[in-house]
Amino acid sequence: MSEGKGRRKIFTVLVAVVLIAVYFFVFSEPLRPELSAAPRWTIDLSASVASAEASAQDRVDASAVSFSTASRFGYFGTDGSIGFVGEATGPVPMSDSSYVSAELVPGGTNYSLRSPVGARVAELDASAPFYSSGRLFSAQADGSGVAAYDGKGNRLWSYTFPCQLSAFSAGEGLAVGGTVDGWLEGVDSGGRRAFSFAPGGSRLQVVLGLGVSRSGNWIAAVTGVDRQRLVVLGRGGADYRVASHRYLDSDYREPVRVVVLDDDRHVLYRRADGIGVWSVDGAVDELLPVKADDFDVSLDAERGLALLVARRGKKAEVVAFRLPATLLGRVPLPDGSEYVRLIGSSVYFGSGDSISRFDFMEE
Amino acid sequence: MSLRAVRVVAAGAVVLAAAIVSSFAFDWPADSGRYRFSFGSPRDGFKRGLEFGSSGGIVRAADDGELTFAASGRSLPGGYPLIGGSMVVVSHASQISTIYAGLEPGSVSSYLRNVRKGDIIGRIEPVGGLGRGAAFYAYDAKERRYINPLILMPSLSDDKPPVIRSAILVSDGKETALAASKVVKQGSYLLLVDAFDPSPTGEQAAPYEVRVMLDGSERDRVLYDAAWAEGGRSTLFSGARLGEHEYLASDGRMRFGPYVLARGRVVISVVVGDFAGNKREQTYSIIVQ
Asked: Domain boundary residue among B103, B131, B152?
């Protein structure tokens, strides 16, 4: 690289960092005095595109974080180092340990499982691969089934649900499908039916959204039309039983985000007036006044801090709060932030050109 | 209750459900019935609905009902892909739901609540790239099974009979084509039938009925009327109740049998029919040694 180009790149990155810092000061709602958002770094992706077959020196360490935008995908380190960046022409199924590349061939698509450095691990016999909770699955072509794979691309099992899925989520050793006729059906690590349950209680039956805890011990779902209902199931021996439920005022006829936090206690779900916070035993019933069509959440258990990225149309913001629903502050992200990832108290966001990191710090 | 009795009851349930719905008959949801693939066509597994492929065509509600669910975009919140496009579910009377999948993202009429027959549901996602055309399913929520939509909609004019491409006996992995061979060894054989019914667009769609007869006696009959899943396993046909993977080979051929063929002359007949009643029959006379 010439000296001039190197200076331009440094200048571009510096300007981006300054703009992001200014953006936080100008546009964000004030954070609580004990909390601050500190910019860490910005990566220029446009200068980092590698071929899909990465060279040997393009290595990422065990802290590799996957990212995917409309035009680029790859991996970076939490310290701002770049692992592997590839050009994308569509959504790329990714996890922090592998991704799936697609090649259009006459009559269909060939899928390959690849490592974070782009090395081919295996050909994948799959219809529509995707990741859920870091596990690799493939959807059945008509949307009514799922197949699970191991880290080497071997198909572990496949399972056909009675009808199309309207919701899906997975935890350790458990995958759950919610069907358009209102049933929840769980599949264990051997591909056997773990449970089947129809929440009922509504005029029309449908599962609008569901979340499975990372541990696989809890399942939360928003179900039904007229009236809508939040139902939490807990593992009880070999079966799952209703642990708590409440009726909702909403009338959604579309997918509804439901998340069970890693603390195995709190459930977040989309409401018309914000994001509901519920506890699996029903003791907590609070509201975060954050309107979102979709959201993701991460928990920094050590600090007792939860971060939430709320998306509404093309707008996205990061909200810091303490459980159950004490709002600490919100930071809007720049328009066009296609990628947002929360890890602990760190926020990674960006577009096809750059990725930045900032951390929430306590004074 | 004997297995046969169970099958009769199950078949009766589908006929009853179809009769209830037929009393207010669904309309064709797209393109005047010009579907590409019918119920049972091998489309990355047994197709449990109809598939339409007209680029940019309109999909309309098959009957009055209520919109229960509409998912736009490429995936559900948990990452599960919406293959080929968006999906809409409409609930009708008698617990029948119609499911419209493979719709162009952004075209879905998700604002609808009470749906009238003929209301626009969305546009068909063009075939090619991520698009696979639109799919239409009729689902009986009470029995938790798909019904062949052809049973529920106005009949189409069709004078093209199905095509039987081949019938092959298989024993210990060895295939013997019936058309080419007149002599086989005695033993137990599976029969692989390669047959299709030309769809209105000229694609190789599934037939509606397949019968296998040995020496004039019916040994197997499948009617493409219903499909469902239980415990993760896909099951086909209310009368025969066959596992999908036992019936449908990966190359789309249909598997029948096993039949024990004893020494002597055996006449094997395969009859394939479509929904309009057109039939094609192939008879093979073989010597079993």
From this structure: B152
Residue B7 has pLDDT above 90, yes or no: no
Is residue B10 located within the same domain as residue B134? yes
Residue A4 lies in a domain: no
Residue A202 is classified by DSSP as S
C-alpha–C-alpha distance, residues A279 and A264, integer Å? 9
Interface test with B, best of A136, A160, A203, A295 (most B CBs within 10 A): A160
Our CA-based measurement puts residue A8 at a distance from the nearest CA of chain B, in whole angstroms, of 38
Report d(CA B75, CA B85) in Å as an integer: 9
Nearest to A181 among B48, B110, B144 (CB): B144
Q: Which pLDDT band holds residue A6 (cuts at 50, 70, 90)?
A: low
Domain termination site, one of B152, B183, B218: B152
pLDDT at residue B34 greater than cutoff 70? yes
pLDDT above 90 covers what percent of chain A? 70
Count of domains in chain B?
Answer: 2
- Would you mind telling me the total number of residues written for chain B in this entry? 289
Flag whether A178 is in a domain: yes
In whole angstroms, give the CA distance from residue A275 to residue A272: 8
For residue B109, the domain's CATH number is 2.70.70.10
With beta carbons under 8 A apart, name residues in chain A contacting B141: 181-182, 205
The predicted-structure confidence for B103-140, as pLDDT tens digits, reads as follows 988 888 888 899 999 999 999 887 665 567 899 999 99
A7-31 residue pLDDT tens: 776 666 666 666 665 555 555 556 6
Residue B6 clears pLDDT 80, i.e. is over it: no
Q: Is residue B119 located within the same domain as residue B228?
A: no
User: What whole-number distance in Å separates Cα of residue A293 and Cα of residue A272?
Assistant: 9
The average pLDDT across B166-182 equals: 91
Same domain, B238 and B276: yes
More confident residue, A63 or A307: A307
Domain assignment present for residue B158? The answer is no
Is residue A287 a contact partner of residue A327, using CB atoms and an 8 Å limit? no
Residue B26 domain boundaries: 3-152
Q: CB of B188 within 8 Å of any CB in chain A? A: no
| Number of alpha carbons in the 13 Å side-chain half-sphere of residue A331 | 29
ipTM of the predicted structure? 0.90
The CATH number assigned to the domain holding B196 equals 2.60.40.10
Nearest to B87 among A130, A164, A294 (CB): A164
Chain B contact probe: residue of A135, A146, A164, A206 with most B CBs at under 10 A: A164
Query: pLDDT tens digits, residue range A72-107?
Result: 999 999 999 988 888 888 789 999 999 999 988 877
Backbone angles phi, psi at A218, to 5 degrees: -130, 140
* CATH at A258: 2.130.10.10
Q: What residues of chain A lie within 8 A of the CB of B74, using their CB?
A: 91
In a domain, B10, yes or no: yes
C-alpha A188: how far from its chain's center?
22
* B143, B212: one domain: no
Phi, psi of A49 (to 5 degrees): -70, 125
pLDDT (tens digit per residue) in A182-211: 999 999 999 999 999 999 999 999 999 999
Is the pLDDT score of B44 beyond 80? yes
Residue with tokens 């039904």: A224
Q: What is the CA radius of gyration of chain A?
A: 21
